[in-house]
Design goal:
286 residues, six-stranded antiparallel beta sheet, 16% helix, elongated
Amino acid sequence: MKKFYIITNRAKDPDLTFRTSIVHYLEANGAACAVRRSEELVDERHRNTDPSEIPEGTECIIVLGGDGTLMRAADDVQGLNIPLLGINLGTLGYLAEIDRASVFPALDCLLQDKYKIEHRMMLHGVVYSGDQIIREETALNDLFIGSAGAPHVMAIYNYVNGKYLNYYRGDGVIISTPTGSTGYSLSAGGPLISPDSELFLITPLAAHTLNTRSIILPADSEITVKIGAGRDDTVEHAMAYFDGDTKAPMNTGDRAVITRADHDTLIVRIHDDSFLGTLRRKMNEV
């Protein structure tokens, strides 16, 4: 690789000294490195990155921040078919495998073409009110549907390929990809899934029923989550969160339809750690 683009989380690198050091290192080793010119919100669709700023022929996007920054970048650049390398400037990170201490050896690997690329499936979610689309987004990790205000027991109906699956009364439901199995779903008691799998995971949050197990479905499934009525048949006010970031309001009768996204996220891997090895190492860091 000889042509790079850098996305930076300014909260993690406020004076951009770390980004500058990476640019200088790459250029000193004969590579071209562009950076995002504006740090302001791009638009409603692209929250972190303006894809039109990414130079043609870019071979790798380096993301400085953490897993959250990498997830937002993945959404912003989907469809460009450019792999992402996450450099973790925060704490625990599963997606961003490189940290500050190992960044320059990792850059050497990129320059010498010593890496592999993993494909991670994304989900595509559309939130409807009747026939009107309220929000349409993709997510690398998950789509969480919960209450719009203080957490409380909600009625949630789930369907798969148009057929009724089950009903939850609880604080919400998480629809995650294999990558997202190490995120919110894990905190809610969901299983860990190898990120190279192709499937969906449905995990209820604090369900007040005996039916509280996570459910695994094929990646070609169409999952529909419908909001039931509130207490005493009042209107329920809910919220759908894509990767814990972009959100869309939902009320009784509204639904979210989740399918596999058209494009995968490409993740650059430097180390040969297996999923279990990475998991063991990260869990020991907690």
